[in-house]
Amino acid sequence: MRVARRVTEVRAAVAVARGAGQNVGLVPTLGALHAGHFALMDCARCECQFVVVSIFVNPTQFGPGEDFERYPRPFERDLEACERQCVDLVFAPEAAEIYPEGFSTQVNVGALGSILEGKLRPTHFAGVCTVVLKLLNIVQPDMAYFGEKDYQQLVVVRRMVADLDLPVRIVAVPTVREADGLALSSRNAYLSGQERARALSLSRGLRAAAAAWEKGERDPTVLCQLVRKELEAAKVVIDYVAAVEAETLKPTAAGCRECVLLVAGRVGTTPLIDNLILGAKGVSE
Amino acid sequence: MRVARRVTEVRAAVAVARGAGQNVGLVPTLGALHAGHFALMDCARCECQFVVVSIFVNPTQFGPGEDFERYPRPFERDLEACERQCVDLVFAPEAAEIYPEGFSTQVNVGALGSILEGKLRPTHFAGVCTVVLKLLNIVQPDMAYFGEKDYQQLVVVRRMVADLDLPVRIVAVPTVREADGLALSSRNAYLSGQERARALSLSRGLRAAAAAWEKGERDPTVLCQLVRKELEAAKVVIDYVAAVEAETLKPTAAGCRECVLLVAGRVGTTPLIDNLILGAKGVSE
């Protein structure tokens, strides 16, 4: 496994792989790798002959007062994990390699990036889009892998890729959960034991809504209320609970055949999100 | 010469050229082709084995009240011209092919796109950047050719390409002028005979400034004043006259070794721009 710090090294390594007729997969991450990331890498490993993992805590997708500084950066452990996952190339740039002096370009996806998580974090998705676009241009993969855990991010990235005619396929990988239902997140490391117990209310609420859906409940307000009830019981500060259309993220109409439940809240100072896809595509768990 | 209306046709044709080991050049245009465009095509033809010209009057780079509707669209004549120029592929999409329903992504380059022409036309460079990025992603050329006539556009596109790590070389081609100095522009077609005479004040003013520069004048205010004098004498409404640094477009300091004079004004309802590069890179005429 090779570790590249510079864009030129990545381009050279990918060119060699391309020259050997290999297809290329990219797994973009912020590091602090966990089983959710490993699932992305497994998918990439299955489909691609040359697998690139980027590890970059992208400053522009953190807002003022967010956890950019304290975001975990266990770099050596991440490298060992990538090695175990049979990754071919890790791209771990310094911030100055990604944002050199004079950098000023920004990509926005409009409304999709300004609702829900984007309403809480107004600069977040512009930061995500811009860095993902850069990574896609640097690596030029055939496929790039994103977790369904960050559902809105997935939709936003797909929108950008379609709108900008990027020649890459975005592959969604189902959320990985702990045995008790907690969705894996690098931010779970912030939780105390007691906070972790309260954080379980997100997946518990989603499961309650899924059970109601299975029994025929199709009123989005009722479904969201089932989620809210669990969060409130656990004293989780609710940022939003929404039942939305899978691609537009617009509120679903009552009686819909498919919807995605999105939930975001805070346990202490830790922001947590989770979601569940109901209906046509099947529950993603 | 092939004419493609669809993105998929372009990708297929370029893939065939790539498969044959050819390098690819793109000349993006709004059509209404003139000798300025032909110079771009000549450069592309010299350097590239497969030359693509796009013809698309991009609605998003026109502001409200601008000339989108009346912009000339002599499509058959443009195709004949491309044929004469030995172009391999013309990409002439409908607006719906470029901006299908749900399209919402926008690329901005920050300050570079909001000064000078961007101050007059606040949405212009976002429109330019977004469509150019799409064209670059659709064609995936090795080189793309832009005229120095639209100097700020050239700088903005280069900024975007650098910032987004696009694997393309942006080639600048010197402005083509009529014998009397008028910079070629598709918008010159709007000018009456008398207006055309007044429009000559832009190039005349720039030449006066260049003559002063040759004699050692390095005060940007004095250089700009020489341009303004000609415009005022011709009763051209001045939008801006600026002496700027070649890459940052920031005002040049007195005593600079190099600067670009940018001028924009209106003759009747016709907006005109022109510029001259002074110093290190030599006068571009």
Key attributes of the depicted protein:
10 strands, 9 helices, 2 domains, 6-stranded parallel beta sheet, homodimer, Rossmann fold, alpha/beta, Pantoate--beta-alanine Ligase, Chain: A,domain 2, 3-stranded antiparallel beta sheet, 285 residues
What's the arrangement of secondary structure elements?
The structure is a homodimer of 285-residue chains.
Chain A: E1 2-4, H1 7-19, E2 24-29, H2 35-47, E3 50-55, H3 75-84, E4 89-91, H4 95-98, E5 106-108, H5 117-120, H6 124-139, E6 143-147, H7 151-163, E7 169-173, H8 193-214, H9 220-233, E8 237-244, E9 258-267, E10 270-279
Parallel strand pairs in A: 1-4, 2-3, 2-6, 3-4, 6-7
Antiparallel strand pairs in A: 8-9, 9-10
Helix pairs in contact in A: 6-7, 8-9
Q: What is the architecture of the largest domain in chain A at the second tier of CATH?
A: 3-Layer(aba) Sandwich
Count of extended strands of chain A:
10
Oligomer category: homodimer
CATH class annotation of the largest domain in chain A: Alpha Beta
Task: Please outline the major beta sheet of chain A.
Answer: 6 strands, parallel
> SSE string of chain A, helix = H, strand = E?
EHEHEHEHEHHEHEHHEEE
Query: Which fold name is given in CATH as the topology of the largest domain in chain A?
Result: Rossmann fold
Fraction of residues of chain A in helices?
25-40%
Largest interface: A-B, 28 and 28 residues
**Pairing-aware structural class of the strands and helices of chain A?**
alpha/beta
Question: What would the average pLDDT of chain A be, to the nearest integer?
Answer: 96
